[in-house]
Every structure is written in structure tokens, then in C-alpha cells.
Amino acid sequence: MTAEPDGPEDRLRRFATIWSRAVFPATSTSLTRVEFEERLLPLARRLSEALRARHFDVDAGKEVGAALVDAHCTDPEALSHALHCVDAYLVLYCGEDGPQEDLRARSSRLQHAMAAGYAQALRERTLAEQEAIAQAALNAQGAVAQALHESEARFRAVFEGAAIGIAISDLEGNILQVNGALLRMFGGSEHTVRERNARDWTHPDDAPQVCRLYEELVRGEREHYHTEKAFYRPDGTVLWTNLTVSLLRDADGHPRFQLALMEDTTERRLLNLRLRYEATHDALTGLPNRTLFFERLEKALSAGDGQRFGLCYLDLDGFKTINDSLGHAAGDRLLVEVADRLQSCATAPGEMVARLGGDEFVALTTGPETQSEVDELADRIMNALVTPVRIDGRELLVRGSIGIVEGPAGERGPAEVLRSADITMYRAKSAGGNRYEVADAEADARAITRHGLTTALPAALDRSEFFIEYQPLVHLGDGTVRGAEALVRWLHPQHGVLGPDRFIPLAERTGLIVPLGRWVLEQSVRQAREWQERHRDKLGAGPLRINVNLSPCQLTHPGLVQDTVDILECAGLEPDALCLEVTESALIGADDEVLKPLRRLAEMGVDIALDDFGTGYSNLANLRRLPVSVLKLDRSFTRGMQQFPADPVDLRIVEGIVSLAHSLDLTVTVEGVETGAQAEQLRLLGCDTAQGWYYARPGPPERLHDLALVDATG
């Protein structure tokens, strides 16, 4: 394999070499092939310069075509070989730095200009030879006649042997001559073709400017024009061509004839149409694909005033289960059946259905009344999915979730509309599926914010954007501060301070809760150690305990126990100064494997608190097997105690829970204490500790230390 030429001159010479090899066998010349190549090199340079010129001049092609005649390239195959060579290699070797589509267009125009210049020069050469014969008639009548005959024979050979269709007509459009290639393209006899006037060769797909260009040419206002044009054959089929029409003038410069050069592009056009179809339609279902859908959506969104659009974004519920259980072949057959049903739902003008990929489909409707039409379209889709699909003897129930976006054209772009539909569809799926929801700007904004927070979480931990506030735990008997619960906050650059309810669920879904939880534990334990040192040095009081929440993901993480041990040892804090809080819902139905890390921590002296007790509907008998030492009553049990008199039902429930907990040697902590009446009632019921705004809101660690000092100095 040889390397490609390096510099522009090398590539130009390579092009000239290929050109000479293609044309030399069909050239009547005494030159050697190497000498003939040197003859073609300036012509190749002229084409290259014209191809890359800032201001394109098609006359370069006419000059090169005429130069080929001067080089005696008049054999029937010479022009055809030259045009094929220029078409295949000019852009490849001389236009690699420019936009390929523009260079190809220029190359095509140069080829047609070459053919026009070639025909014009050949004709002029013939006329010149005829003139020379006339001047020398008295001295060499026989020689002139022979030369004229040979000239006409050469012209006829080129005319008849050309691979492209050639026709000559007068300025009125009467066809005077046609070659064999043109007759083969039209599939008729010469008489059939010649009896038609060139002005009558119109087609409904003609570009609007074709008629104008033709009239300008026959009036002598332009020398040639090039266009893509369709013709009807005698049998009614369509012939597509690249057409170049040139004006032929007489010796005095007056317009005399038209020369038409036609290249048959029918097969290439059909291939392009097929490729376009395959590029814009789904191979499995035959529906329009994402590419074509976005074209249609963009067109609908850019429509004029008064136009609206409606979009239904469908995702099948449970499709992955079908794929996993029955196989992808069955899943594909299901998708084909769904596509057929959806197609039958969108048959009105302005409606279309497309498959975006996987089990995601979209239905689009346009027009001035889409507010009601899109809802009706969604209803038709849901009804179409009701009937089970039978595959391999199984009846499969098909359900789907649809997100609907509707609105006026011109306000949003395709990406924004599809994002809103996608968000709305997932809202329908989160609500149980088999339903549709209508897009809501506020819901979209919340979803976008959640997504933004999710993607920003990893970097936020690296940038130290999280901080911890501490809420005191107060002993109900003597009112002293016994410790605090660590509550993580996120100082977001755009949204300000975010509470854990805004980002903890996101961290759990992404797995970031494990490193975040370890950081919270590490910071809280270090803070507890600092409190102990400061408290003991000043007052000699007992240690302040720290409560840290554990998420379900942390509970099942294999490094939980070792991480806790390492953090305690590094900070120098005793295990009994730490309490890990686990929600009741995380321990419902937990097996021994899940409870094993908690048991190991409890054996080390770490307290385990059952948080939000009373919200998980657990069996109270299960408390005996859980390694917990603290019950934290959910605030829902004490809300009724804010009023006076307190709700007697709530009093009896709390009294029963406290009695049960104490019988199991468990201490009881109450959340959400907001009034003194609540605190007093809970003390009378036997609760041990409490936390809530009545005592203090969550705050910086210094405030907790100050509260502890006040209690100690009472």
C-alpha cells in the first residue's frame, strides 16, 4: 500500500497522472503518455484553482473542455473518461480542506462546463476546419473534402459515443439532433423524442427558477445553466437527470442553438430516498424515528401565529420485566404490536406517532385546537393498550404512562418540550402508572431542581459545602442537656441552605449517602469529643452524647462497623457517647444478616435508637429481637398534646408505649416538643428525654455548649 501525496503540488500531479492514464488510450496524439501528462498538468491546476477559488468561475471548466479538444482528445470515449475522472478524483486530491458538499457541487458544475466547452470547441473546430477547407478549395479540393469528412466523423463519434445524453435544438425548442445515450435514457425512438418541443418537457417537481433560466438562455442573456430536473418517459415513468443547457452562438456571436447534456440520476435518487427513509424510520416498527420526529416537532413549534401543538410521551410500564422473563424476541414482537395500535390512534391530519427508542413512543398533534385534541389522543392511546397482546400463547397486559405537553407554537424549543414531556411521564409513572399526567411548570421546575441537585452532590462533598447543626436532647426529669442530634445541611451556591429532606433521598438513590454519612459521623464524633473536653475542664459534668442518623444504605454497607470503630478511636471518644439512629421502616422485616452489624456495635457499647417509632406498623413483639436501647417516638403521637386538654387517646397510646419500652429496659426520647405543656405531660407519662423547638432549634455546636453550661450552673 502506497502513502497518499503529502503537499498540494504532489496531490495535483497525482490527479494529473490519473487523468492522463484514463484519457490517453482514447486520445489521437503523437505524444507519449508522460508528455501527455505534462500537457494535462496545467489543465488540472486550472480546475483545482477554480474549485478552491473564493469567487467561483465556471468558465474555467469551459476552458479546460476546449483545451481537451486542442489536445486532440476527440475520441468517442475521451470526454466520458475525462468527466468520470474529474468527478471521482478532483475533490479528493484538490479539495480536501474545504466543505465537501460545496466542493462536490462546484466539481459537478465544472464537469458540465467542461462538456459544454468541449462541445463548443469541437463545433468551433469543425467550423474552423470547414472554413479552412473552403479557403483551400481551389488548391486541394480532395484533401479538404477528406479532412471535412474526418472532422465530421470525429464529431459524430463523440456525439454518438458519449455516455451522457446530448440533444441539440434551435432557439424555438425544436429538437434537431439527439444521441443514442439520450434515446436509451428516455426509452423511446428518435422520432418519439424529436417530435416533442423542449419547452413542453416540464414536470410538476421542476424548481420554480427553471423556466426563468431557460428563457434567459434563449434570449442570449446567459450562456448556460445547470439544474436537477425530472422528465416523463413515454411510458409514464419518471427520469431524473442532472441537466446542463448551454447556448451555442454563430460566428457573429448571435444565439443559434441550445445544447443539452443530461446525466441519468434516477437510480442514485431512488437510493438516496431509500437511505433517507432508513435514516428517519425505526427498523423494528417502521414508525418515524427520533430524527424525523424532531424535524416534525421543530416545524410544528416554528409555525405561525394561532398554531398550537400537543405531545403525548408514552413509556410502557413493566416492559423490562417482559424482556427479562420472555426474552428480547418477545419484547420486540410486543413493541411491533404496540406501534401498530398507536399508529391507528393518530390518523387525523397533523398527527403522527414515532418511536424514540426502547419502549418510548411519542404522538404529536398540531393545529389551532390541540387543547382538547391532545387529551382525546391520549385517551385513544390508553384505550388501544387495554386489549392484551397474545405472544407465544401468552396474553400480555400492556400498560403505559403518558406525559402530555400542550401549548402555543413559537414559545419553546424541541428539547425543552421533550424534557417537559419526559418529566411529566415519570410523574405519571411515580403515581402508579397506567395513566397520563399534564405538564405543570412548577412540577417541571421541581424535577429539574432535583436533577440538578443530584448531579451536584458529588462535587458538593468535595467542595465541603455540607455542614452540621445540632439539636439538643434534654432530660425531662431535670431539664439538663444530655446530648444532641447531628443534622446535616447543604449550603448550596444557588439555592442557599437546604435541609436533609431535600437531598438525603437523592443521596440514597445515587449511593453518595455512604461517603456523606461517614463524613457526618466523623465530624459529629469529633465535635462530641470537643464538647466533652470543654465541659469536663470547666464543670466536671458528665459527657454530652451525640446521636447520628444511619440510612438504610449505610446499614447494609459492609464497612459500617469498621468505619465506626476507626472514627471513634481516631477521635478518642468512648462508644457509649455515640447513639446511632435507624428508622423503624428500615428494620421492618430485617433478617439476622442485616441486624448483625447493629448487634456488633451494640455489644461495643454504642447505643442504637429506633427512630420514628410508630410510623412503620411493626410488630411490637419484634422489639425484643432488635439490638436497640432507645425508642424515639414520632412527633405524630405528641401533636395532640399541644392543645389543652390533651387528646386522651394520644395520652393512652404514649403511656402504653413508654410502659412497654421501660419493661424492655429501653429509654424513650420524644421528638417535636414545641410547648411547655407538651414537655410537662410527657414528663408525667414517664418519657426520658425530648427534643424540639421548645428547647432549641438546630444550631451551631457552640450554642449547644452554651446551653449545657447554663444547665450545669443552673
TrEMBL record:
What residues does the GGDEF domain cover? Answer: 307-441
UniProt protein name: EAL domain-containing protein
Pfam families membership: EAL, GGDEF, PAS_9
Return the InterPro entries for the record: Biofilm_reg_signaling, EAL_dom, EAL_sf, GGDEF_dom, Nucleotide_cyclase, PAC, PAS, PAS-assoc_C
PANTHER family noted in UniProt = BIOFILM ARCHITECTURE MAINTENANCE PROTEIN MBAA, DIGUANYLATE CYCLASE DGCP
Q: What SUPFAM superfamilies is this protein classified in? A: EAL domain-like, Nucleotide cyclase, PYP-like sensor domain (PAS domain)
The residue ranges of the PAC domain are 225-277
Q: Which residues form the PAS domain?
A: 151-221
Domain (EAL): give its ranges.
450-712
